[in-house]
């Protein structure tokens, strides 16, 4: 375990008992009379991961003094929505490896992955009815819709070497950060927080989710495949112009820009070693890490508006530790 993952574990230990309750809800609500649904769902959910989105909902709820049972159901809902997006993402991206093992689509095929993703989305919407709160349903419905738009936007941007940082961030804030934002907002809504505190929580979630994805994109060029549990260069293979590549093209020579542009437009990884070297030599990784640091600091600033307690401090630590993330 790396130092950063150990630190993250110390924050998550604050809600360890709550997460066990969430796990119980997940196990119970994964049930289906169709065996393949349960097999695929169980396969991807049991793959592990930090479960940051449900953790975020639980941390915000506790920081604002809410300890009711709806937090467990809604934490499971956001995990189901996230898992559905992973199933669909891996099909769209033709991914073969996630969290160190074969993706569900590699194991069960594309049709099963897409359809079980649909099952998880619809089960999540069944579950959110338990709270009997139209505001909660509106937040989750809006988030799911924005995520879907982000997926389509990313698809439109594939193999587009002209994408700039603003276009890149627009995709991230829709596709990844929106569910972080919704998770934090739900914790505040459950706690009956004031509009100002609710917006601070939502802004924290958006900034945290953005920083999380930016660091993920750094690791595609500066990570360890074994630690990350995915193949290095996957983003390039899919034709994604992520911030490390955008920054490298801005800072590199004409020949370096041409090489990266060709790789993005054609999804070519035959020059991956050269491109990784260019990304590192041009300082593009430093530029990208600085962008992540700015988002992490934005998250910290919003978290510090919450009442002072160990769970609010945990939210601050979670943002600070993202910058040391290695997987």
From TrEMBL:
<dbReference type="InterPro" id="IPR000092">
    <property type="entry name" value="Polyprenyl_synt"/>
</dbReference>
<comment type="similarity">
    <text>Belongs to the FPP/GGPP synthase family.</text>
</comment>
<protein>
    <recommendedName>
        <fullName>Octaprenyl diphosphate synthase</fullName>
        <ecNumber>2.5.1.90</ecNumber>
    </recommendedName>
</protein>
<dbReference type="GO" id="GO:0008299">
    <property type="term" value="P:isoprenoid biosynthetic process"/>
</dbReference>
<dbReference type="GO" id="GO:0046872">
    <property type="term" value="F:metal ion binding"/>
</dbReference>
<keyword id="KW-0808">Transferase</keyword>
<dbReference type="GO" id="GO:0106350">
    <property type="term" value="F:all-trans-octaprenyl-diphosphate synthase activity"/>
</dbReference>
<comment type="function">
    <text>Supplies octaprenyl diphosphate, the precursor for the side chain of the isoprenoid quinones ubiquinone and menaquinone.</text>
</comment>
<dbReference type="Pfam" id="PF00348">
    <property type="entry name" value="polyprenyl_synt"/>
</dbReference>
<dbReference type="InterPro" id="IPR008949">
    <property type="entry name" value="Isoprenoid_synthase_dom_sf"/>
</dbReference>
<keyword id="KW-0460">Magnesium</keyword>
<keyword id="KW-0479">Metal-binding</keyword>
<dbReference type="InterPro" id="IPR033749">
    <property type="entry name" value="Polyprenyl_synt_CS"/>
</dbReference>
């Amino acid at each position: 375990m790396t130092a950063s993952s150990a630190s993250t574990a110390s924050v998550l230990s604050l809600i360890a008992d709550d997460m066990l309750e969430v796990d119980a809800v997940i196990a119970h609500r994964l049930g289906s009379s169709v065996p393949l649904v349960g097999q695929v769902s169980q396969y991807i959910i049991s793959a592990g991961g930090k479960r940051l989105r449900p953790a975020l909902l639980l941390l915000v709820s506790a920081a604002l003094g809410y300890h009711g049972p709806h937090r467990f159901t809604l934490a499971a809902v956001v995990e189901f929505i996230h898992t559905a997006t992973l199933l669909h993402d891996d099909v769209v991206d033709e991914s073969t490896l996630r969290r160190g093992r074969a993706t569900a689509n590699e194991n069960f095929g594309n049709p099963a992955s897409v359809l079980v993703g649909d099952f998880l989305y619809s089960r999540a919407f069944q579950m959110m009815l338990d709270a009997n709160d139209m505001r909660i349903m509106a937040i989750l419905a809006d988030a799911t819709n924005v995520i879907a738009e982000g997926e389509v936007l990313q698809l439109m941007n594939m193999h587009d070497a002209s994408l700039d940082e603003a276009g890149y961030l627009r995709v991230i804030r829709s596709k990844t950060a929106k569910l972080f934002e919704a998770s934090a907002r739900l914790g505040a809504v459950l706690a009956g927080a004031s509009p100002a505190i609710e917006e601070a929580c939502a802004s924290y979630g958006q900034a945290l989710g953005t920083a999380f994805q930016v660091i993920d994109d750094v690791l595609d060029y500066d990570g360890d495949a074994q630690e990350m549990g995915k193949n290095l260069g996957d983003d390039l293979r899919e034709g994604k112009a992520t911030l490390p590549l955008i920054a490298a093209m801005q800072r590199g020579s004409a020949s370096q820009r041409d090489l990266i542009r060709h790789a993005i437009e054609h999804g070519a990884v035959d020059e991956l070693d050269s491109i990784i070297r260019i990304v590192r030599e041009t300082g593009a990784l430093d530029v990208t890490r600085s962008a992540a640091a700015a988002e992490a600091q934005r998250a910290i600033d919003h978290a510090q508006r919450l009442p002072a307690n160990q769970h609010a401090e945990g939210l601050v630590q979670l943002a600070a530790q993202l910058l040391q993330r290695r997987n």
